[in-house]
């Protein structure tokens, strides 16, 4: 159950629209929402005053747009480094989901440009829904989940099913990519119903009466996942993002994954739809 949502409001992108679409899904209809806007340090007192006033207006507009019962929405305006504040507030409110905008910066560029979403993506243990600034947000009817044998993939499937099971005319797209599979040119599936990774997911979908489609493409997983998402015009992509860093590195960004070694990092940059990263 999604009971607490943290919307990190930057003033750009379509995160508010994304949250409004989610609120149409039964799983979210009782959720409480914290809207956070962070004002970074300013050079002058006048500059800080101006930014705080603008932030207050932005929060007020977001509250009005979401149109939730007053007891279900909590606007927060804070000063500080947005990266640190988002992570801290996510822990303080014990959120079940963080929603953030993203510029979709690639690899080293995200480090050099001090990307807030990249930082939070690396260091938060909470599920995150990233919405690239140039992504068109749609009503959620088709949810795709990328599967493998990992525990985070199992959690991804569980959440995807919870999201889609009560959506009228919804469809669950199950995808498992195999980099070693050899197919004929143009062929994108090799009897996906028999794929051992997909079989448990198919069984669960059938048991719950969920309309599903399964695909088992060959090739590089990141590229193929993004290609399938675009080809099928999915509205939301769910993928596991396991935290593999040792405890000693919790306070530091994982440079290997920042540099593009992570499947979930590749997908969050290149997918043409909102991406839900499950820890």
TrEMBL record:
Q: Which CDD domains match?
A: USP-like
UspA domain residues are 1-131, 141-279
Pfam hit, one: Usp
Q: Which InterPro entries match?
A: Rossmann-like_a/b/a_fold, Universal_stress_UspA, UspA
What is stated as this protein's family in its record?
Belongs to the universal stress protein A family.
Q: What is this protein called?
A: Universal stress protein
Q: Which organism is it from?
A: Pegethrix bostrychoides GSE-TBD4-15B
């Amino acid at each position: 159950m999604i009971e607490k949502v943290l919307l990190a409001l930057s003033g750009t992108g379509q995160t508010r629209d994304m949250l409004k679409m989610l609120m149409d899904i039964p799983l979210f209809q009782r959720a409480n929402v914290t809207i956070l806007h962070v004002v970074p340090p300013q050079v002058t007192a006048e500059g800080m005053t101006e930014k705080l006033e603008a932030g207050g207006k932005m929060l007020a507009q977001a509250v009005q747009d979401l149109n939730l019962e007053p007891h279900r929405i909590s606007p927060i305006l804070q000063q500080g480094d947005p990266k640190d504040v988002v992570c801290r507030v996510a822990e303080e409110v014990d959120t079940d989901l963080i929603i953030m905008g993203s510029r979709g910066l690639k690899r080293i560029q995200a480090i050099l440009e001090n990307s807030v979403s990249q930082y939070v993506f690396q260091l938060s243990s909470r599920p995150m829904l990233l919405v690239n600034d140039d992504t068109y947000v749609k009503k959620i009817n088709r949810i795709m989940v990328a599967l493998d044998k990992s525990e985070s993939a199992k959690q991804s499937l569980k959440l995807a099913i919870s999201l889609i099971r009560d959506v009228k005319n919804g469809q669950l797209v199950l995808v498992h990519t195999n980099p070693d599979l050899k197919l004929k040119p143009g062929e994108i599936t090799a009897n996906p119903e028999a794929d051992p990774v997909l079989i448990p997911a198919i069984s669960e979908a059938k048991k719950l009466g969920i309309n599903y489609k399964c695909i088992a493409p060959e090739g590089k997983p990141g590229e193929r996942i993004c290609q399938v998402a675009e080809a099928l015009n999915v509205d939301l992509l769910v993928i596991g993002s396991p935290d593999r860093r040792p405890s000693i590195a919790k306070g530091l960004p994982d440079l290997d994954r920042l540099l593009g070694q992570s499947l979930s990092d590749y997908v969050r940059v290149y997918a043409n739809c909102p991406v839900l990263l499950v820890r």
